[in-house]
Amino acid sequence: MENKTSQEHVHVLIIGSGPAGYTAAIYAARANLKPVLYQGIQPGGQLTITTEVENYPGYPEGIQGPEMMVDFEKQASRMGADIRYGMATAVDFSSQPYKVEIDEEKTITADAIIIATGASAKWLGLPSEQRLNGSGVSACAVCDGFFFRGKEAAIVGAGDTAAEEALYLSKICSNVHMLVRRHEMRASKVMQDRVLKTSNIMVYWNTETLEVTGENKVDGVRILNTQTKEEKTIPVSAFFVAIGHQPNSGIFASKLEMDDQGYIKTVPGSTRTSVEGVFACGDVQDKIYRQAVTAAGSGCMAALDAERYLSAKGH
Between β-strands 220-225 and 231-234, what pairing exists: parallel, antiparallel or unpaired? Predict the structure, then answer.
């Protein structure tokens, strides 16, 4: 990464602005670390494409995802965090202070870096899926299943997450239609057995989703059996996509240790990465829980870890 003409040094740089990034900013600002936070391509993160959030503690009436992220941002600002619009486009962790390129035009050097770039749900890529996203189409059954209590739902996917979410939905929805692309699931044997033994989960093998139907909200899903070539529409009120998540960690490839899916590895019980002074929190390093509340908790941990690191360094 060559030096850009415009350069600035900051004490703590936070990359990303979901619950993890903003919580890290709140804690870092209160510790007088003068954090600078860059919001990235999707300020507020995945919660900005969620409608109602009912499972975050402290909001007895529930709250809209985007509104909640505005609250997080305001709180971080009030504590003194410097919140900026812009995206990290390259990093250099080969020597300290570490360098981060913003929008391919400015270089920020930092004594400590907190990565909170999150993850993105993988989608099927159907126009109808995007059009009805938030109106019955969701990539998180644990977040949104509750709204379809007693109704019919479809879920697409064949891995452990899809099986887990189908089982979760089976306790809430009247029937769950599980759409599996191949003639078998990728899920572990124990998860497959649970799904197949659950009376209100119907598994459709060799099935491709053609379209999610409905004007302003989901009313069905049109499917194709790839073997018999038979098309049919199943009436459902919700359509869940459970084909995995992609951590937003591309720019850190080869700079930090990651697992085979691209999630940044952290030392268990901490947010420390394989590079000293670089911390990771939220969904970019958590593929298990992926909830706003756990992301916020790990954002707090990252700020505390960064504070301890800097004070040990005498910064």
Answer: antiparallel
Looking at the structure, tell me whether residues 48 and 96 fall in a common domain. yes
| 1 is a domain residue | no
**285-300: pLDDT as tens digits:** 999 888 999 999 999 9
Residue 1 binned pLDDT confidence (cut-offs 50, 70, 90): low
Does residue 300 carry a catalytic annotation? Answer: no
Which one of 214, 241, 268 terminates a domain?
Answer: 241
Angstrom distance (rounded) from CA 81 to CA 28: 8
Q: Which of 111, 144, 286, 305 is catalytic?
A: 144
Grouping H, G, I as helix, E, B as strand and the rest as coil, residue 258 is strand
What value does the CA radius of gyration of the chain take, rounded to a whole number of Å?
21
pTM for the whole structure: 0.81
Catalytic annotation, pick one of 82, 103, 111, 140: 140
Q: How far apart are CA 304 and CA 34, in angstroms?
A: 14
**Rounded Cα distance, 222 and 215, in Å:** 14
Of 71, 92, 111, 143, which is the active-site residue? 143
